[in-house]
Structure formats: C-alpha cells, structure tokens
Amino acid sequence: MSIFSRYAMDHGDNRALDSAQSVWSEQGDRHHLGTGPLLVVEGLHTGFELQSRTLKAVDGVSFSLDYGKTLAVVGESGSGKTVLCRSIMGLLPRSGVRTSGRVVLAGKDLNQLSPKELHKEWGRNVSMILQDPMTSLNPTVKIGRQIAESARWHLQLDRHQARRRSIDLLESVGIPSPEAALGRYPHQLSGGLRQRVAIASALACDPLLVLADEPTTALDVTIQAQILNLLDAEQAKRRMAMILITHDLGIVAGRADETMVMYAGRVVEKAPTRKLFFSPRMPYTRGLFDSLPRIHNPSHTLLPVIPGRPPDLASLGEGCSFEPRCSSAQPRCRTEAPPLVSGEDPEHLFACWYPVAAGTSAATSPMGAVGPVSS
Amino acid sequence: MKIIQRLAALLVVLLLVSFLSYLLTNLLPGNPAIDILGPSATKAGIAAVEHQLHLNRPLLVRYLDWLGAVLHGNLGRSYHTNQPVSQALAQRLPVTVELLFLSQVISLVIAIPLGVLSALRPGRKLDQMVGAGSLAFLSVPPYTLAVLFVLVFAVKLKVFPATGYVPFTQSPLPNLRDMVLPAITLALGTTAVYVRVLRAEMIATLQENFIVMARAKGLPTWYILIRHALRPSSFALVTVAGLNVGTLIGGAFLIESVFSLPGIGLLTLQSVYSHDFLVVQGVVVVVAAAYVLVNFLVDALYLVIDPRTRHAAASS
Amino acid sequence: MIDSVPESDTVSSGEPSPNDAVLCVEDLVVEFPVGRRKLHAVSGVTFQVGEGETLGIVGESGCGKSSTGRAIMQLPRPTSGKVIFEGRDLVAIGQKDLRDVRPRLQMIFQDPISSLNPRQRVSDIVGGPIDNHGLPSGVSVTKASRDDRVATFLETVGLDPASTMSRRPHEFSGGQCQRINIARALILEPRLVICDEPVSALDVSIQAQIINLLEDMKNRYGLSLLFISHDLAVVKNVSDRVAVMYLGKLVEVAGADEIYSRPMHPYTVALLAAVPEPDPDRPPSPEIGLRGDLPSPIDPPSGCRFRTRCPYVQDLCSEQEPPLVQVTPGHRVACHFPMGK
Predict the structure, then answer these.
(1) What is the interface pTM, i.e. ipTM, of the complex?
(2) Considering only CB atoms, which chain A residues are within 8 Å of B218?
(3) B85-315 in CATH: which number?
(4) Among chain C residues, CA nearest to B315
C-alpha cells in the first residue's frame, strides 16, 4: 500500500521507490507482476515559458500508484490534468517547457532516460488513450497497422504474428468481424468503435500502465458506459494500472481506487474514491460536488455554485489558488499556500488550512440531500 | 459520372484553347507564303502558295477545316518541311517529357526530405538554411540559372555538356548526361516551392493528435514521419505540383532553347519564327491536353492519399 | 415526487393545449441531401411549448435535436411541417415577416466563444439586436437609451457593464462569453429562447452558474425555453417537461419528474441507466442492454427506428411504426410495448 502521510511527502518516500521492483521480461506475459508501487511521481513541476513569465501548468505533484490499480485525476480545464499526463509520459516538447521532478515507472526514472530509452517505454510499458477517437487515429492508415505497429516494433513480431495479435485485440475490445476491420480506415467506423480501436492499440504490448485522458468525453452516454466497462474489464484481465483523467466526477465513482482532485496545477485533494466522495475536505471538491446537476434533483433545483472562475496560471499569488473563490477563506489563505497533508485519516490528503469538517457532506447521496434550494 | 463530366470539360477547354491560339498565330505579322518563297517571291507566286495552303480563305473557315481534320486524327503538315505535324510532335515530344519527368523526380527527391526535416524542428538551423536557400532559388529566374549553370558546369568545369542530345533509346547514359543539367535547372524553382508547401503542411500535421498517439506508442521518429505524417501532409504538395505543370512547360521551352534540346519547345520557337502555324497549333493542342490530363491525375491522386475522399467518391 | 397522476387532462406536468402554447411544432420534417440520397435529420416531430414553460429536448448526437431547434428558427427552413409562433406559421411566411418575428424568438448556441463576432465590442454585440430591430416598446432609439439598456442587461447576466462594454470577446472566458450571448438573446425581451447545448462546452463549476442564470432569467422575464441538450441531468434540472429524441423521432414526452421516475420507452430507460452518477455505492453503469450503434439517418430502420438496438424487440416493431400516444395523462410514448405499463 502506498500511504502518503505528511512525513512521506515532506521527506521523500524512498521506501516506495526501493520497493518498486524492475519487471523487465522483454517478452510474453507479465501477469505475474508484483505488488506495491508501479508508478511513483515526486515533486513534478512543468512550466511553459512565455515571453516574460513561466506558466506553472503542473506545480509540485507527487503521488504513487500500485500495480493494477486505478487513479482518477479530476479537474476542470486548465487544472493541469492533461499536462500532468503528458509530463508523466515525457511527451512534451523540449523547447519552451521546463520539467523537473521524478517519474519512476517500475523502478526506472523516466526523466533520467535518454530519448531512445524513453521510446522503449512508450507503448511498451506505458501507453495512452486520448479523448477524441476521431483525431487520435490516423485517417490515412489502416486500422490493422495502427493497432499492431507498437507490438511489431517493441516485441519484434513478424507480419503474421502482428496480424494474429491485432485480431485478438480487436476481438477482445468487441469489434465485430475483426478480420474485416483490419483493412478498414478509421472514418469507416462509428465514434464508439473508433475508441475501441484506440483502446486496442493502447493495449497492444500489454502495458503496465495506461493513461486515459478523457477517454469518453467525446462519446454519447450510452457509448460512454460501454467504453468504461470495457476499460474496466481489460484492466482487470491484464492487471494494468490506469490513470483516468476526467472532468466528470460521475464516471470516477465506483471505477477508481483513488481519486485526486487538481486545481490550478496542484493536487488539492487525494483520497480513496469512497472517502473523497462521502467526505470531501477541500472546499473546492465540495463545491464541485454541490454544483453538479443531479438526475435525482426535482426539476428547477437551484444549484449551489462556486463563484468566479479558475485563476490565470501565469499570475498565481502566494497563497492558496482557490482562495478568491472560496467561501471559507481566511487571511492566512491569501499569504500561505496550504500543503497537501493528511488529517486524522492518513489515506485522505487535502491542501486546505480550513477544511470542510470530516463526514459532513452527503453530496453523493441521491435525492438531493445537500439541501437544494428550490426556486 | 464524374469522369464523363471531366471529359466534357476537357473537350471544351481544348476547343477554346485551340481556337484562341489559331486566332493569335494568324494575327502575327508576316506571311508564311513569303517565308516559303523567300524575298524574291512574285505576287502570283504568293497567291499560288496561299491558294495551295488555303491561306486565302476566311479565318473561321480555315479553323473549322483544321478542326474537322484534327477530329479525323490529321493535324496537318508543316508548311516548310511538309512533314506531318503529328510526326514532328512524335519526334520532339519524348525529349520534353523526359526533361519534365526528370526535373520533377529531382524536385521531389530533394524537396520531400528537406520539407520533412525542416518541419521536424521549425526555426532551427536546418530549417533556416532551407528557408533561405529556397527563397534564393525562387527569386532567381530559371533562364539566368540556366546560363549560369552552363558557364560553371559546362564551360569551366566541363562535367556536363553545354548542349546536345542523344535519344535515351539509343544510348541511355549519354542521354542522361545531356539531360541532367537542364533538368536540374528546371527543378530548382519548383523544388523551392515544394519544400515550402510541404514544410507548412507538415508542421500542421505534426500537431495532430494522431501524431501524439504515434509518438506515445514509442515508434521511431523516421517511422512516424514517413508512415503517419507524410501522407496527410501531401495534399497541398500534390495540388501545387498539378497547377505547376503550366509554368513548368513554359520553363521547359526556355531551358530547351538555352541547352538546344530538340523538344517541342524548340520546335515551337522555330515554327513561330517561320509562321508555321499548323505546327504551333499542334503543339498547343498537345500541351493543353497534357495540362488537363495531369490535373486529372492529381485528382485521382487525392483518392490514393486520403481514403476518406475515396469512400466519399464511391458512395456518391 | 408525484406518486399518482391526476386523472384530468390539464395536470401541472401535462402538455399545454395548442391555445396557450407559445410554440406549436407540427409534423416537422428536416432532410438534407447527401449525394443523391436524403439524410432524415428530423422525421415528423410534433410538440408544444407552453407559456413560461421549459421543454427539454434530450438525445444523443445525431438524433436531430439541434436540427429541430434550427428548423424552428428557420435556419435553414425545414423540409415540411408547421412551426406556429404567435399565431403565424413561420414555415409559410416570407423573409420580411420572419424578420418581424425574430425579436421575440431568440437562440443561444453551444460554443459561446465562436458564436460571438471577434471583431465587435461587447456593447455592439449585445446592442446589435436593438440596432437591427429597435426597442421592443417601439420607442425610438437614442444612443443613450440603447447604451443604458445594454448596461442593464449586462448587469442582469452578472457582468460589470463599465469594464465589459468596450472590450472584445477574446478577452473573456467561455462562461463570460455565454453570459454575453444570453444578454444579447434577452435584450429584445423575447417570448421564446431556444438554447442549443448552452452549457456543454463549459466546465462543471461554470456550468452550474449558467444554468442558474438561465433559470433566473426565465423567471424574471417570463420566458419560455426550448432547452436542447445531450446531458440528462442538466435537462432534468431545468425542464418542466422533457422530450426524448431518437434518430429524428420523439420517442417519449412527459413531465420532467415523471419521465425520470417512470420512463416507459426502452430507449429512455437505457439512457437513464447510462448516466454516470457520482455515487460510489451505485454500481457503475450496469450493462445497459443497448446493442450496437446508432443506425444511419440516411437509411433509417423500418417500423420503430429504435428496434435495431432494443432489447425487447418483437416482430411487430419492424412492421409497424409506433405512434406517439398518450399512455397516462401528459405522458406520451412511441412504443408498441411500453415498459411499466
């Protein structure tokens, strides 16, 4: 278990790093993987250099993720969740971007690898699924090639083996008549099927970790449910770990082991999903839950809102970045940024000087128990 | 359906072009009869030749006569040599086609790698050098370059012959040696255009999500560039190459006269000087047809490059 | 919650009679040519929007909900059918008469930023309708009265007029742009506003602000709203009645609370089951039983259009198209075998 107490955060968790064994059998099945942390991210900073200042897109993010587990990263646009995902991969361009911190995947610090060594990790041990399957598949390349190419490259499969593997993958992600689908182009499939193809290509080398960046945002609700269920099933079957990046708290519930809420480039709350949902401590998290329109609300429910809007990342102040929008802000919040620490519960971290009292939120219970103001 | 429409358009274009050129060549000052008979021609002699060549009939009638003959596959005969025009074209056309083909191959062989590599790291050294180089070649007219090349490579260094031509079918190597310099000269201008067009589109393509995905699969850069980025980036290149054919043929006429290559360019020049209208007319028809044909091929190439257009075309 | 439906025809959640409806849409058909074939975007849709009512139209992409909204605006004109607004059939009247109607029939679009002209100042965007149509009271416009009204409406939608009037759209966030759009739509005091996915492009915390603003505006100005969205939870929160669309047809229409608590069409049931709820105790989207993908609107299935994906399909469904009939007062369903019946 990776329980990050305040101590661990402040002093660097070397135990976690040491116990992340290396599992590099270059081929074949890796379903016998160990337990413990697969991914350890420590003090990750990513800044984009503008003319005169630096835009802190990811500002000191640390967490760890165990083998086979799912971590949800929830945040609004501009919260840094997508940049975090690309920083973990090391996919950001080198010029104009400043990255620091450690990203240790199964014992290897990705930030220390040469580009060539890093390319060997991509697709093989960590892979990605993007939001819009319309644009994340190449319109001019046949589906068969797009699925098999990473396996052909990393596992040195020959044409025949690659074909076999593509068919298996398409079958497992539920594409009807997989053999025929190999010769098709992406535009010949519907949005839902395209996302299945994207998932198949991410799974091609049986990666240890999949980063899913808003994998269902572009899809209809009925298709979204199918795709999320598929991801769940594949993850369980292959014992992959997954980072699920989303703006939608709804799809996190019941799917992620842990949930991490980001605001203005920082992690403001992180806890096992149930705890976060039943007792959010950070006022921002609480506000997010409250402002969600619920299907169980009677019609014309007035939603409690978070006033204002997210801050400009290029001109953040000294204090807590949520302070200008926070209803329980105090003078201290303006001058001192709260660290991410745990309260009584060592599993539940939050960054707030004046947290919401534990166990006071019933934000998740149906029938609008938050006390919606009816108009 | 589409093809029939295109063919109809092609016919209309050919009719218009041939009529206009008939009009223009006939408005040129001078009289072929005088050219044929020489300065000592008598009035009666001129009248006889004019009668023989039907030059005394009204322009429109002559044009329609010519058109009628063309539809029967007869392009007429040269006033001077009495050689059938179709035969003259058949002799000269291969030279020009070879010149154009070689120059485009050279152009693409240089432009594709340069365009791709400068798009990979825009603003870096290679990109800047390529940018400056293509600007330089764009701003120098090809005939200036042609003269310069002849001076440097043929006269001074003597690596290539300045003039001369041996048919490819006779002896391939000397033929290529004769063609290299003209082809390179012709290629330089188009190469510069192709590099810039490809670079711009490639830079846009490299921002696409599917390129991010391909990188995230850990595929090597060369593979991503060739397999994933090149094809979706080549629309503008293909379009420009197609539209460029006209300029290129014009350029070929110039280059042929500088290097004395016996192509249709040279043939046209000689015919214009000697008022050999039917030969000029034949060249115009062939060039116009070739131009339309090439753009026809370009459209077909879109279908090869982008499967989406292929299926849209099939379903409609 | 309503536990028993009153036996009268004029229940609170019931439908407005054509007499007191602001908008009556009758047998609306929208078709687009695709090559030589036709895409059937909307295929015979009939509904009313009552005075002061919000009717939600919900459905997945490609169901025709946006085409319906645009056809009501006559942008472009529908293929056939009637759109009766203020006693006139907008489909039948000419461009000039249509122009007279426009001030009272407004629309708000999904993408708040691109629906604003980037070159115009906010004061000209919001004041634009006044410049085109004059004031709703008919009083002649002066520069002062115009700017005054623009300022009032900016303030109403929660923007500071002094600091916004002379700025241009790119200086604002998505949420602020949507506020500007709302001010522009309301400045002529319309009777009906068609909102096409007005909050879909916005972040969660901003979305709630805009939903509340629309509710507030509706109460303040006595508006009727046609609220088009793919998000069932959002639609539930704002609507009096909800119409569910599938492949160009209405499959179910009922009061908002009624349709969510007693859905009768298998498609509505599946849609509701698929909504992700932020509740860790609820098993995440149980198998929703919908097979396959949306059929092509170019070649829709015979009979019931939902039959190709319906878990309860029977022979009758492919032979006969189920009409949209009232099953309980105010609750209409287009299904041969409605559920819970």
Answers:
(1) 0.83
(2) 119-124, 150, 153-154
(3) 1.10.3720.10
(4) C35
